[in-house]
Design goal:
Layout lengths: L2 H9 L6 H12 L5 H14 L3 H12 L15 E5 L7 H11 L4 E5 L9 H5 L11 H11 L1 E5 L6 H11 L7 H14 L4 E8 L8 H17 L4 E7 L7 E2 L1 H12 L5 H17 L6 H13 L2 H12 L18 E6 L4 E6 L1 H11 L15 E4 L6 E2 L4 E7 L4 H10 E4 L9 E6 L2
Parallel strand pairs: 1-4, 2-3, 4-5
Antiparallel strand pairs: 5-13, 6-9, 7-11, 8-10, 8-12, 9-11
Helix pairs in contact: 1-3, 2-4, 4-9, 4-10, 5-11, 5-12, 5-14, 9-10, 12-13, 15-16
The structure holds uracil (URA) and calcium ion (CA).
Length: 434
């Protein structure tokens, strides 16, 4: 096989067979295909797209390029939950314990945040003592004992994706749906779950800017799951405004604890119940959505998810008292009020601008190895649809440094108009492999 021929074939829209895709991925991972040829191939894919079977071959080739977790020694059906990344998206910290509290095992691998979107691993690291570094054996043992563990994604999975993503990042080939879908799903498949619930964000703060594109991505990912014999459901959700009220690491842990206590923001609570319901159905714990939903609502009011969260914290070396005493979380030195300069209805709160402002405060990182400030972030007291008057408090900036510029940025993220013409939809669409 000859790399030039494979590039040519892809460029001319003829597509590749399984052995050709395996050849490309294996040799690229081993350093036997130079970056210039692989980038030409990515660009050819960008313009020509890929057929469904090609996308599955690519996904499997990348999933098989490194270590694959074997979760078969965990009893029961393991369903993974994945979000394409949002602002203030605290759902994993709520959904995982809630599902585990129903008796369904959750063996979750999470990542760090990058850019304006946060990561579950960073959020958890704001809990004093908590560690996400468990061996595979410890991870499995913990899930068998308490049904729940959240660890950092192993550096040994999907080396092909790591290399290819870095290449796409500098060759303007990131935003290709087949490449995005295979990148995400290869990591999911390598992490070893039996099925997937995907939260595909649509909006200014998400990876996909509009519902059509997000739905298209969701369809491709669900098809990959189905092809791999893993039941998969994708929920397309609103990421025009931040999810819930908190954006920032310790702030989002606080928000997760409040939500698990039944005191969460309406949108965040609803999305968590939605995703958790789909997980219970895929895990065959509930016969249908409404049965799952009822059970979860019962667990939520009994604070069973909160207890489970505390249990996980204790098992992973953290101070579980945090679930009763939020004062144990790191706290920023200053709370600066965000005061409305207008009267009217909040038509939008630009999630991207809020995410960037949080990053400027130090809550996020621009580059992989940058350190972050776990205490800082943005707290919203008002959401899209609310009526406010001049002088009302829209929220607070939690800062450790001078933040005048951030205040400007956050204020300009709010669009306040005499009438409400905005969008309050939370869930746009659902795609299922079942
Ligand atoms: N997230 C991923 O993991 N991969 C992509 O290609 C895009 C977003
Ligand atoms: Ca939030």
């Amino acid at each position: 096989m000859n790399v030039y021929d494979l590039i040519l074939k892809t460029r001319n829209g003829r597509g590749l067979c399984e052995s050709e895709i395996n050849f490309l991925i294996e040799n690229y991972t081993q350093g036997k295909i130079p970056d210039y040829q692989m980038s030409a191939w990515c660009m050819a894919v960008y313009f020509q797209g890929m057929k469904a079977d090609e996308i599955s071959y690519l996904t499997m080739a990348m999933a098989n390029s490194g270590m694959r977790y074997d979760l078969s020694s965990i009893k029961g059906i393991k369903i993974d939950k994945h979000s394409t990344g949002g602002v203030g998206d605290t759902t994993t910290l709520i959904v995982a314990p809630l599902v585990a509290a129903c008796g369904v095992p959750v063996a979750k691998m999470s990542g760090r945040g990058l850019g304006h979107t946060g990561g579950t691993l960073d959020k958890l690291s704001s809990i004093p003592g908590f560690t996400c570094e468990l061996s595979q054996a410890q991870f499995i043992e913990q899930v068998n004992q308490i049904k729940l563990a959240i660890i950092g994604q192993s550096a040994e999975i999907t080396p092909a994706d790591k290399k290819l993503y870095a290449l796409r990042d500098v060759t303007a080939t990131v935003d290709s749906l087949p490449l995005i879908a295979s990148s995400i799903m290869s990591k999911k498949l390598a992490a070893g779950a039996d099925g997937f619930v995907l939260d595909v964000k649509a909006g200014v703060g998400g990876f996909m800017q509009n519902v059509e594109q997000a739905t298209e991505l969701a369809k491709i990912m669900v098809a990959i799951g189905k092809q791999a014999n893993k039941p998969t459901v994708a929920v397309i959700t609103n990421m025009d405004q931040p999810l819930g009220c908190m954006v920032g690491n310790a702030l989002e842990v606080q928000e997760a604890i409040l939500t698990l206590s039944g005191e969460g923001a309406a949108d965040l609570t609803e999305l968590c119940l939605e995703l958790a319901s789909e997980m219970l159905v895929l895990a065959k714990h509930s016969r249908n959505y409404s049965e799952a939903r009822q059970l979860l609502e019962k667990k939520l009011s009994a604070k069973a998810g909160l207890v489970k969260f505390g249990e996980m914290i204790a098992y992973q070396g953290g101070n579980a008292k945090v679930i009763e005493d939020l004062g144990l979380l790191p706290k920023a030195k200053r709370q600066i009020a965000i005061v409305s300069q207008q009267t009217g209805y909040i038509n939008s709160i630009n999630a991207l601008e809020i995410g960037k402002a949080a990053m400027t405060l130090g809550a996020g990182r621009q580059k992989q190895d940058q350190s972050i400030d776990l205490a800082v972030g943005i707290e919203l007291k008002k959401k899209v649809g609310d009526y406010v008057e001049t002088g009302d408090i829209l929220g607070f900036i939690h800062a450790n440094q001078e933040s005048g510029q951030v205040l400007e940025q956050v204020l300009s993220a709010f669009s306040i108009q005499p009438n409400f013409t905005g969008n309050q939809d939370l869930i746009y669409n659902k795609i299922t492999s079942l």
